[in-house]
Known about the structure:
Helix content: under 10%
Number of strands: 33
Number of domains: 3
Distance between the termini: 79 Å
Radius of gyration: 38 Å
Low-confidence stretches: 33-45, 182-195, 504-513
Structural class: mainly beta
Largest sheet: 8 strands, mixed
Strand content: 25-35%
Number of helices: 4
CATH class of the largest domain: Mainly Beta
CATH topology of the largest domain: Tumour Suppressor Smad4
Mean pLDDT: 78
CATH architecture of the largest domain: Sandwich
Amino acid sequence: xxxxxxxxxxxxTHWVLPGETQCAHGHAQPQGEPTAGxxxxxxxxxxxxxxxxxxxxxxxxxxxxxxxxxxxxxxHVSGYDPRAAGGRHAVKLELRGMPPDAPAELxxxxxxxxxxxxxxxxxxxxxxxxxxxxxxxxxxSRGREHGQYRIDAEVHAQAFAGAAARAWAATLVLLVPRPxxxxxxxxxxxxxxxxxxxxxxxxxxxxxxxxxxxxLAAGGTLDIDIGARNASIAQLDFAAFSGGDxxxxxxxxxxTLAWDEDLVEIGLPxxxxxxxxxxxxxxxVQAEPDAGFPRHLRLFAxxxxxxxxxxxxxxxxxxxxxxxxxxxxxxxxxxxxxxGRHATVRAGRHGFEIEDVSRxxxxxxxxxxxxxxxxxxxLGMRIELxxxxxxxxxxxxxxxxxxxxxxxxxxxxGGAECFMLLAPERAPAPPGTEDSAARALPRAAAMPLLxxxxxxxxxxxxxxxxxxxxxxxxxxxxxAGFHGxxxxxxxxxxxxxxxxxxxxxxxxxxxxx
Length: 513
């Protein structure tokens, strides 16, 4: 309905129905033109014009959402309560904003003076819904000097499915306060005249509130507003309510601290090269063994190499051991005194270390180190398996390089095998920066220099610097350090081809940051 649009009667206020030729006063209405000053009816807008406009608006909104930046990788830290000074703490770490193509398990390395042994290793695991399960850092501040402590965190994604390894780093700073921190008697004077109190601490300040009994002497309630931010501490003293008539109901709600720490990627993804014979375990077979190079040189390139009992089926270890007697290896007898998982050897931040995980123990230079206590290996160290019965298997560290560890048997099996454990994806030190001869005993000094990279084993010539991939087709006699007829095989125990292989462990880049 429109107003009267007669040009001869501009002040007429009567309404005219659409299609009428005159208003109620008989004023003629113009035909064929839109009524001047008339309000446009929204329902008269054609639908074929409205639908494209709605689609265009929806497309623009989708474009804005698509252009939104991807979430940044970060650690959400929560649950830290500085009031637990001198006691145990449990800090919750949540992983957020990781790339969607990240593997389902990420290694977490932590290093701090607050942690046992100055560091620990954990793992983030992704659930079926795509969320990462949180991990908890537990430590005790008993006997710690008050102040700020740094926790260096590294998140490592191992190479998988053709993707390169990646790593992120963040630094957390936790405050361990002094238990008797106070601001003096100013709070008692303040509470004597005020019942409603506001406490505020900022920029690492520590405030302590006392004299609450004086504030409640006149009766009623006392409302205290507490604010502490930026690593500050607000401490309330409720000792006055421990007994007597001055007690009352206290409703207390003190939150713990929570914040986000950005994860900064510390390594650019590199396109992995293809090795002609990828393997994480292999063997060099010598046709004419000697004292330094026995018949089998078994190679392993694993983040954690498990030493254990030889089994013909369902072996639990990577490096399989058995007792050697007068007539050769004996799968029974004293071999049964070895655990399926007897010890683990890994390359840590400060070199190779060994850890006893067995029932029967092991001896390092005649001393039992204790179960589940990693011990750094040193050149010439004697490793005896087991601690209860001597002479089952005896190994000696004959070479200890930054990227490799060589173990020779010094029992009846010395002529049958020795072992070289390599840090995966780690090249040897450049010539001139590491004295290999000074870090190896005579029986291992003449052995070839090998390393693991791109998923396979390589030979390194110290004189020329040439790197040669090891494959079954490689003519090893032409390489430095090899003497006589030697062949390479991608199986750690080629003599047991009809038996079950040791457990398979995927080689991954070593967390050596």
